[in-house]
Amino acid sequence: xxxxxxxxxxxxxxxxxxxxxxxxxxxxxxxxxxxxxxxxxxxxxxxxxxxxxxxxxxxxxxxxxxxxxxxxxxxxxxxxxxxxxxxxxxxxxxxxxxxxxxxxxxxxxxxxxxxxxxxxxxxxxxxxxxxxx
Length: 133
What we know:
Blueprint: H1 6-19, E1 24-28, H2 31-42, E2 46-52, E3 59-64, E4 66-67, E5 72-73, E6 78-80, E7 89-90, E8 104-109, E9 112-115, H3 116-122, E10 126-132
Antiparallel strand pairs: 1-3, 2-3, 4-5, 6-10, 7-10, 8-9, 8-10
């Protein structure tokens, strides 16, 4: 299935997999989804991820993280901010703080995909892709 908004598709697949308490989920692999998965892994929201398949049909297999005996998901919520129909940009002074710093905002900057904290530290603004907490 071809998706116009690969980021929203990725976030929805992760959200559905965590609600169903799946161990892993598959997401179509693009440069953007790989970069977002790398940021999520660095921030501790997901475990390992790997690329499977060949040619155009490559997928990312993302392992999800849970805590405790009840298997409570580490990712509480994911929210897409900038959409294809309405892009949301922010400079470094106006970058959003998600839940007072508990969550992260993923920003697409001229230096690549990074968290709001890293973008603020480097003095970069960009497109606010999504919030995760």
